[in-house]
Amino acid sequence: MFVVCPDCRSIYPLRADHLSRANGLLQCGECEAIFQAASMVCDSLSDAQNKVSFLSSADKEVESVVAAALTSLDTEDAEAPPVMRERQEGPELSQQPVTEAFWEDDETSASRFVSVATLKKMLAVMLAAILLAASYLWMQSRSLAAYPVYRSFLEPYCALLKCELPLKSDLTLLAVDTLQVEDNSRVKGTLLLTLVFNNNAEFTQPFPILRIAFSNTSGTELSVRYFRPETYLSDDEERHSGMQPEASKRLLFELPDPGKAAVSYQLEFVEQEN
Q: Which of 31, 142, 175, 219 has the most CB atoms in a 10 Å sphere around its CB?
């Protein structure tokens, strides 16, 4: 797997166990930005390069919208009529001194004209800021949804825009009920692992990646296997709908025997990328 830094677009190789550390937060070694890795994970280097191209094109589109808005305002300002107008031809007026009231009226008009132009520029800047914020939220919505404070903000807007947020996830509320390993009498050189785990959360959450490791007496891992939901769930509908509250799942795995040096085994839940 590979992960892309959303700030500087650097690409790094990534192991699945990295996602379980620090709640999936990573720090870029190039720009030192800290980001949620889940939404920026790619299965291959080519996918990562495609994601970089997509992010770059999105930035260019936002910049072009802002530039077009500012150019339009500059054009309107250039074509606006001047405040002071030349005297029109007509009957000759009596030679009277210019009154102070005349200048005050023109100054008021000029002030009003400047205020309108300034207001338009301010509105353009505000529109550009909103577009940038919306673009960022759209690209990062799936990773931001992992945080309760951002999720509560995104949920009403997604309900309005008919978008779909990923299921809420809390691996600490997944509990192992049964974990048993025994020799497989049917296939020589393999083991059978029986796993039963429960979702103790009050909400539906996605099925996790399962990490199964065998270790020797010194704690060194001799064999590590990862099982993604699509490999241990045959029902696509069940995988996409998630694990219901208080639900239980029973699984049976056939694993290669790591040898006599393996004296212990461990199971770890790893959060899957969105």
A: 142
Question: Counting every residue, how long is the chain?
Answer: 274
Burial of 170 (0-12, 13-18, 19+ CB in 10 A): middle
Token code pair at residue 24: 């999936």
What is the C-alpha separation between 153 and 161, in angstroms, rounded?
13
Q: What is the pTM of this model?
A: 0.48
Q: Over the stretch 62-101, which tens digit does the pLDDT of each residue have?
A: 666 656 666 665 555 555 455 444 444 445 544 554 444 4
Contacts of residues 246-249 at CB distance under 8 Å and 24 or more positions apart, as own/partner, are 246/198, 246/199, 246/200, 247/198, 247/199, 248/177, 248/196, 248/197, 248/198, 248/199, 249/196, 249/197, 249/198, 249/207
Return d(Cα 274, Cα 272) in angstroms, integer.
Answer: 6
11 residue type, one letter: I
pLDDT value of position 268: 96
- The proportion of the chain whose per-residue pLDDT surpasses 90, expressed as a percent, equals 34
Residue 32's pLDDT is 85
Beta bridge partners of 197: 176, 249
Contact 39, 55 (CB under 8 A): no
Compute the C-alpha angle 63/65/67, nearest 5°.
70
